[in-house]
Design brief:
The complex is a heterodimer of chains A (327) and B (482). With 327 residues, chain A is an all-alpha fold. Chain A has a single domain, classed as ABC transporter involved in vitamin B12 uptake, BtuC (Orthogonal Bundle). Helix content of chain A is 69%, strand content 2%. Chain A has 15 helices and two strands. In chain A, strand 1 and strand 2 (149-152) form a beta hairpin. In chain A, helix 2 crosses helix 13, helix 9 (159-181) crosses helix 10 and helix 10 crosses helix 12. The longest helix of chain A has 24 residues, at 205-228. Chain B is α+β, with helices and mostly antiparallel strands. Chain B folds into two domains: 5-155, Immunoglobulins (Immunoglobulin-like); 193-309 and 321-480, ABC transporter involved in vitamin B12 uptake, BtuC, CATH 1.10.3470. In chain B, the strands form three sheets. In chain B, strands 4-1-7-8 form a four-stranded mixed β-sheet, with no helix packed on it. A four-stranded antiparallel β-sheet of chain B has the order 3-2-5-6. A two-stranded antiparallel sheet of chain B has the order 9-10. Chain B is built from 13 helices and ten strands. In chain B, helix 4 (229-246) packs antiparallel against helix 5. Helices cover 51% and strands 11% of the residues of chain B. Chain B starts with 25 loop residues before the first helix and ends in a 13-residue tail after the last helix. The chains are: A mainly alpha (327), B alpha+beta (482). Chains A and B meet through helix 4, helix 5, helix 13 and helix 15 of A and strand 8, helix 6, helix 11 and helix 13 of B.
Chain lengths: 327, 482
Amino acid sequence: MDWTRILTNVVGEIFAPATAAYALAAIGLNVHFGMTGLINMGQAGFMLMGAYGYAIATMNGWPVWMAVIAALTAAAVFAVILGIPTLSLRGDYLAIVTIAAAEIARLTVRSSSLTAVTGGNSGISGNDFKGSFQNACPLPDGSWSLGPFQYSNCLSNSWWLRIVAWSLVVIAIVLVWRWMRSPWGRVLKGIREDEDAVRSLGKNVYGYKMQALVLGGLFGALGGMIYVLPSAVQADALGRTLTFNVWTILLLGGAATVFGPLLGSILMWTVLMFIKSTLRDLPFDIVSSTQAEAFSWVLVGVTLMLLVIFRPQGILGDRKEVAIDAR
Amino acid sequence: MQLTAPSSPTNPRPPTERRRRPGSSGPRRVWHASLATTLLALIGLLLASPAASAATNDPCTPDPQTACLIGTMRTAAGDPAVGVQLEVTGPDVSTTVTTGDDGRWTLAVTQAGDYTVTLDVATLPAGETLRDPSTTSRVVSVELGRQGGALFPLGTPQTGGTATATPSPGESTGGDTGADPTTSAPTGGGSNRVAQQFANGLVFGLLLALASVGLSLVYGTTGLSSFSHGEQVTLGAIMAYVFTQLVGLPLWLSAAIAIAIGGASGWLQDAGIWSPLRKRRVGTTQQMIVTIGLSMALQYLFQFLFGGGRLRIVTTSSSPVYIGPVVLSVQTLLSALIAIFVLGAVAYFLLFTRTGRATRAVSDNPALAAASGIGVERVIRTVWVGATALAALGGVLTGLYFQATTWNMGGTILLLMFAAVTLGGLGTAFGALAGSLVIGIVSEMASLVMPSDMRYAGALLILILVLLVRPQGILGRADRVG
């Protein structure tokens, strides 16, 4: 059992781009669920919009900033289309519709009839869309190592991507922190606690919910972009499991808190990496690596169940703030 | 209990489940290799297929020192193409790999770069041709810690190359592996495609109804939208696979056992999870998220125990029956008849038996039902057992209909079940039946006008449109929606 390697893997996970991507998606879900009480089970759909929007725009020769805007627009349009029929419905209807919409998006982009645009089932290869982001890198070529962590400066799973990803997380956290204390955030909180009370104050509940859905979706899209930049765009990696992971992260860290999504993401990925690395290193082949992977998702599922039953407020949250049954 | 049964020693783990550890020390690797060879030889003997075909096929995990080249060969009919040889040349290798019993091949390489994968056309199964005969080799570029795939689609030759080479995300993107168990639904050989798709849709709708009726009854009596109902369907199909293929029982007996296990799992679930949660007054939305966690845990438990491949409940194909312009297999026809009979029995139960009437009373108003002397908890327990047993039957029949089951079959049709239940009106059993038929027919007939891999997207679109126009569904009451 190579403990140094396991430990290196685990610590490397703390600042991996995927951890930042999940944190961004969870911050978006926090705007939906933590701040407004919307049960969005389709966060992967927003991430998919971001990932595919960015990749397709880049492949058509758009510069990075325009591709990002295209991706964010795709997510915002998805949010509006999704919000129109569902925001006036009860919580569990919203859950079913959002999960169905995310699934429609996934089935559509992986369809072989769209292979020319989206790459169909096999997705978009990393080399087809990473170029412009890597060229925007201000660091010198080559790679750099910080202790045992050696990554390329600019290519794929790079320091450059890490810098961008974590800067986005910091910006998102500051924004959410401001929003939570703003009058706007208080209206959202009011909607979460008692929609009718807010309506009686003359607020347009539907409009506020729509704003929250779009804003959270934009963070999801940013997360989706960061999620695919180290590797490639693949529709099936942006499916339901992704949504459930983001939910587990949010509920683990604590919904309706500023740092909950960040803490949840770091905690979940380090623990999962520890379990996977340890299982892989076990002497004798007790479990294969696909089994280790499956086992870690079983754990995520069980964690989600236990969290919701016994500690819906997560690590940082306040039980009174987390009213899962409110709309 | 029911979940430990599959790990019986008779479970032959597919060869691809074994892993290769890159960079492990010499003696251990030899030991691994000899163990692997012994096991593979045993499995080869068991499956009466050439053991050599899988020898080069140990799976590969991308890590910082290793990249994986992977691919799956499927025949035009969608079955694994076994024993196809591919030659891989690149920076540090020049070797030949062979596809295993599941049609997969993998090769671990320790250097990033461009690899050329060349298909040996002579080793293709008899009668199979490349869809693009001009492309027998692909260049795959991989980076360490990633996978690169080279696919060679088989089928009728077409113009326009479709062989693809794609790096795909490595371990960081765990999650759905995208095994779509439903792509090989029997597409008809009938003379009239519209009639054929309609008949297929009707059958699929009936099978879907078996699962949805239970989902609807659970919602009606407890207010819970159970996302783990899809895994109840998978459980039935996988148990049928275990008892037919691994234990060797006849199909009807296996199906009966699978249904019994399904019902038992429902009883255990209600006794162990849902009833305590109701006693603690945990809200239904909170319970719904618990079912999502349960669904995820069960789904990956199935993958853990049975792997990600297709599991065939029966390996023989059944003879066709011609009804007017429509062709259905005897098996499909029998499945449909069983479904009709069982759904009729459920309707009789709900309409004319004492417990059935009590169930409808609890659905209407639990408090009033309790006040009039109905044991609400007992009714709910009955509903859970019935719903999960029906789901298990639905799973067995759906697994037969799709010719195979996978660990995520239930997850794939879960949303169709929700669409059916919502369309019919949440909580009304007969609405679920009507909704299922509509969804089944729409999803099969949609392939007439849209690409067939998007047909379920069409069915889900209906779900969203229904909520826009008539949120309470066809047979629901308006006051249910908040």
